[in-house]
Design goal:
The structure is a single chain. This protein has twelve helices and 14 strands. By secondary structure, it is an alpha/beta fold. Helix 1 runs parallel beside helix 2. The longest helix has 17 residues. It is globular.
Length: 360
């Protein structure tokens, strides 16, 4: 298990351990998508992570996919996030913000009646979105024009500037899980022609333009990217996820990023394959694995050089002191899925630490 507790230099970030907190949408933002004191408490509780990667956060207004997710486009949101980062830093932690555009996963009822946008007019199927009027089917998105894409890139750049003002230590560009950048990356959602469709290089163009813009704000050594080549969540698929991963690994090596964060599997088990090997073989930077790792598997993969760190999701949700539990070989709290997206502190800030249990 010692491999999990070795420090890691990830670009400009000096991480005290390799047990990272994955981004977890929890829908606890206050009105107008402003982070509040409850979010500050939640993240500060988890400051022992090597790095906290905060939840998917709207880079620009009008792209809500979760109703009560946070944003980073208004002064009030920046001020709310500054309280979060101050709380994490006071607890000795480091925190990155995941900046995000929901793409076709957005819904008119969450965005003042606006139709969502995407690379192609293909709706998410066999699922529904939570709205103020209850669960509703996803709608067919409007296909973005090529001349609209510079505005998307500029929106991510402004979000990066706001994240810097809010006191974050880094930013992660969200290119995973069937949201806008991932929709462009994978050919199951991107059926367009022209400079942003067809070949892998064309499909990756928007993501790389966003990375260029964000790196221009932060410096590449404080920027990460998350991708999910196999995940079928949000009706996603790619005809050759291994080739996409290998291509990205080679191209991303040019950026000298803080890290590349790869989700290795499919939530629903529909698509299978090994994308971590081509990621490691083709990417020269810090590689973070995610999805279903136990502490033992994570330590073995890091010790063998197959990964540099692992981001844990649900285990960190239910165990604010996850590194201490791993080190002690202690049992983990069980997460309660009924409170994943519900309001208030229940299932959010009330999971006990080992120390609290020992006092009790």
């Amino acid at each position: 298990m010692n491999a999990l507790f070795q420090p890691l230099q990830a670009g400009a970030l000096r991480l005290p351990n390799r047990i990272l907190m994955a981004p977890l949408t929890r829908c606890r933002a206050e009105d107008d998508h402003v982070p509040g004191p409850l979010m500050a408490e939640h993240y500060a509780q988890r400051a022992s992570a090597g790095l906290i990667i905060a939840e998917a956060t709207m880079a620009m207004e009008g792209n809500s996919a979760f109703w009560r997710e946070p944003g980073i486009y208004s002064e009030a949101q920046v001020a709310g996030w500054k309280k979060v980062t101050d709380a994490v830093h006071a607890a000795g932690g480091q925190i990155a913000l995941q900046i995000w555009h929901g793409g076709r996963a957005c819904h008119p009822l969450l965005n003042g009646g606006r139709q969502p946008v995407a690379p192609s007019p293909l709706a998410i199927l066999n699922d529904e979105v939570h709205t103020p009027e209850g669960k509703k089917p996803y709608v067919v998105p409007r296909e973005l024009r090529d001349d609209e894409l510079p505005g998307i890139v500029a929106g991510f750049a402004r979000a990066a500037e706001n994240a810097l003002a809010a006191g974050f230590d880094a930013v992660e560009v969200h290119g995973a899980n069937g949201y806008l950048l991932d929709e462009f990356l994978r050919d199951g959602a991107n059926r367009r022609s022209g400079p942003y469709g067809g070949s892998i290089a064309n499909r990756a163009r928007l993501t790389l333009e966003v990375l260029d813009a964000v790196c221009n704000v932060w410096g590449s050594d404080r920027v990460g990217l998350r991708t999910s080549p196999l995940n079928s969540y949000n009706s996603m698929i790619d005809s050759d996820p291994v080739a996409l991963t290998a291509w990205l690994g080679k191209r991303l090596s040019d950026y000298k990023l803080a890290y590349w964060h790869v989700m290795r599997a499919d939530f629903f088990g529909q698509q299978k394959g090994d994308v971590m090997t081509p990621a490691r073989d083709n990417y020269s930077g810090v590689l973070i694995g995610n999805m279903g790792y136990s502490a033992e598997e994570a330590a073995a993969a890091i010790a063998a050089g197959r990964l540099d760190a692992v981001a844990f999701g649900v285990p960190f949700l239910a165990n604010p002191d996850l590194p201490a539990r791993f080190k002690a070989g202690a049992p983990l709290n069980e997460a309660n899925p009924a409170t994943f997206y519900s309001p208030g502190p229940a299932g959010y800030t009330d999971y006990p630490t080992l120390e609290a249990l020992s006092v009790a």
